[in-house]
Amino acid sequence: MNKYVDVILPLPLPRSFTYLLPDEEIGKVQPGFRVVVPFGRKKFYTAIVCKVHNNAPTEYEVKEITTVLDKAPILFPIQFKLWQWLSEYYLCTQGDVYKAALPSGLKLESETIVLLNPDFEADTQLPPKEQQILDLLPAGQEQSITKLEKDSGIKNILNVVKSLLDKEALFVKEELRRLYKPKTEPRVRLTENHSSETALKILFDTLSRAPKQLALLMKYLELSCYMGGSTSLKEVSKKTLIDSAGSSTSVFNGLVEKGVFLVYHHEIGRLNKQEGDTVVLNPLNSFQQKAYNEIATSFKEKNVCLLHGVTSSGKTEIYIHLIEEAIRRGKQVLYLLPEIALTTQITERLKRVFGAKLGIYHSKFPDAERVEIWQKQLSNQPYQIILGVRSSVFLPFENLGLIIIDEEHENTYKQQDPAPRYHARSVAIMLAAMCGAKTLLGTATPAVETYYNATTGKYGLVELKERYQDIQLPEIVPVDIKELARKKRMNGPFSPSLLADIREALDKKEQVILFQNRRGFAPMIECKTCGWVPKCKNCDVSLTFHKGINQLTCHYCGYTYRPPRSCPACEGVDLRSRGFGTEKIEDEVKNVFPDASISRMDLDTTRSRSAYERIISDFEQGKTQILIGTQMVSKGLDFDHVSIVGILNADTMLNYPDFRSYERAYQLMAQVAGRAGRKNKRGKVLLQTKSIDHPIIRQVIENDYLSMFQREMAERQAFHYPPYYRLVYVYLKNRNEQLLDLMARTMGDKLRAVFGARVLGPDNPPVARVQTLFIKKIIVKIEDGASMARARELLMLIQREMIEDERFKSLIIYYDVDPQ
Ligand code: ADP
Ligand code: ZN
Ligand code: ZN
């Protein structure tokens, strides 16, 4: 009887597809196996088996699986459940989820590469098409099937290739099976002929005329702990040997040529296997212990608990105790951090306590390392703790007991593009529930939604208001820069009091952090004569000026331009920059404090992980006195000598057109302020703003989260926003602006017919064109408590109607559920 499998393809297709299992694979393949399958006219893809069954598909002719890539599943059954939930909740396909979930090394290229089997001899004459393909593939050369199809002109080449594969005339390239290759290290040992003591004595004599080679040989004997004869020796890496002897590769090669040394390759893991000595946990102080106990109690009744603790109250210490306890029960822990908060500081802190039990999953690590972690999680010796970013919610866990989401309010937990546009906090809570695990959310500034869930009793709530060792919260001083500007007393972006405080801090050898929530040199340049502002030709945004590289860049599509010498509109030459980005702030600081050592931390200076960590460690070690940065500087960094924090301009945050902008402004300012003042001194924060009477400014100064929360809740209720309503943004894209307009109006009407007044728009989003595609946005607001499943059904129905309309074939529709 034939067996079939349903597979998920790495494509935005709304369903799974059925393939025939080759006879020899029956009984071997299970859900979670990767297989190569033909799809569409030309292509092969690596797909994931989600079901094995006996039913041939009825609507299409079944094709056969080309290759089975695994001997065991690479997913656990829970993952399928989670993928299913994700695709339903976030209105995307399981193919989208599959693409986001797996590291590239496990997904393989879509273009299968084949090569000739050099040992192949045909028993009988091959069919002409097959011979033609073999002729196109000289020995040792490899080719993608797409290319072979093109070169041979053969239609339906898959069958021909498959027949050749069956005859073992061709192979699927091994690299396809394992894009990920284990890392090896060259090591060295003595050849058979030279391992005995007698042989070595003779060798010493011959080498007396080659002192460098002799020295290297002696070093080898020392490192390998050679005791004469055949006792087992320590393995010596080639590099260590050459380095510790202060020798060179050519001297080394000399000994290889003389047949003394033999080089072999030893497979080493990429992961840090160092067992290392671990330290005992810090004892919790009484406040922390109380919070710990309350969390434990809350977990008896509820699945999720919020730990609302001021900065430096020791939340991380509490996490460490909870992790230790979970591990003692034999459970695994997932510890999530926003990407930019995952620093060496926290890694080191956890490594000291948990040593080799800890694995780190970071998007800036090489893909091969992520593959290795994935595979270790499938093995019988998985990491007990994974410290990771957003995407680590997709890792396979056999025995998860606890998820910690640190800085839970961070909006970088939400994936913006591409689909799945998921929020790692929601996914983690769902994953934990599926595994019977608990979730702890931690932050000093909870997201309004989270605090709402905690105060209504859906989540547990534990408050920790005391800072560790009674360190005082910083003094926050508002500075009215509108008034100062009117009196012409501003020095560029700096008020006189900020300058005075920076100067004093520098004199005392203390450090300063300056926060500006905008990168680049200036947000824009402008013609002083006619007001012309350069815009991106693909997107509907003004360009940011980067002085260092003398470029205008679009922060949406990444396109770069050379700044014009004169205005293309009026030919005026008085082009000036307007506003301040971090790069311009850096210039200004250098002008005022030429002797200070300054560094800047933003997306532009931290493209690589090493650059990022160098900036932090230089600041930590006091090599840098002034650190200028975007919101990156507010994230989970512990510095001991920062006495002054300057928030240069609160208004850019307050004026951002989004219903969350006040909440976010509060969070950002409170977090940045938390960087000031540590062990022995109260820190000071200068908060520069043009809106000195704004309630948010007062709430930040008074550290009054509750007032901020209550005000926000009242507004959200009045204007129908989360947490009272769930938002779904419907995006429509097209190259043709008029057509898009019609599409959006048609879809808006259809939505209104079903959802009534819950529909807003269509509108132009803040950036109405990106990468030459025009964009329209329709907002659907659904009451908290209404059925999302039903809403989803209706949305999908309307989408189908739209796409089936002949006129709208080129329409792209996608959704952002719970937008951030
Ligand atoms: P949070 O995560 O709340 O910002 P941390 O856990 O980072 O706070 O604690 C702030 C600082 O105080 C850290 O340097 C930490 O090592 C120290 N600390 C907090 N609690 C303890 C404790 N119980 N024992 C020793 N050091 C502690
Ligand atoms: Zn002009
Ligand atoms: Zn652009």
Can you lay out the helices and strands and say which pair or pack?
Layout: E1 4-8, E2 17-20, E3 34-39, E4 43-53, E5 63-64, E6 67-68, H1 77-89, H2 94-101, H3 104-107, E7 113-116, H4 128-136, E8 142-144, H5 145-152, H6 157-166, E9 170-172, H7 174-177, E10 183-190, H8 197-207, H9 211-223, E11 236-237, H10 238-245, H11 249-257, E12 261-268, H12 286-301, E13 304-309, H13 315-328, E14 332-336, H14 344-354, E15 358-361, H15 367-378, E16 385-388, E17 400-406, H16 424-435, E18 438-443, H17 448-455, E19 460-464, E20 475-480, H18 481-486, H19 496-507, E21 511-515, E22 524-527, E23 544-546, E24 551-553, E25 560-561, E26 575-578, H20 582-592, E27 598-601, H21 609-620, E28 626-629, E29 642-647, H22 651-654, H23 661-673, E30 684-689, H24 695-701, H25 705-718, E31 725-734, H26 737-755, E32 759-763, E33 769-770, E34 773-783, H27 788-804, E35 812-817
Parallel strand pairs: 2-5, 13-18, 13-19, 14-16, 14-17, 15-16, 17-18, 20-30, 21-28, 21-29, 27-28, 29-30
Antiparallel strand pairs: 1-2, 1-4, 3-4, 3-6, 7-8, 7-9, 10-11, 10-12, 22-26, 23-24, 24-25, 31-34, 31-35, 32-34, 33-34
Helix pairs in contact: 1-2, 1-16, 9-10, 9-11, 12-13, 23-24, 26-27
This protein binds adenosine-5'-diphosphate and zinc ion (ZN) (2 copies).
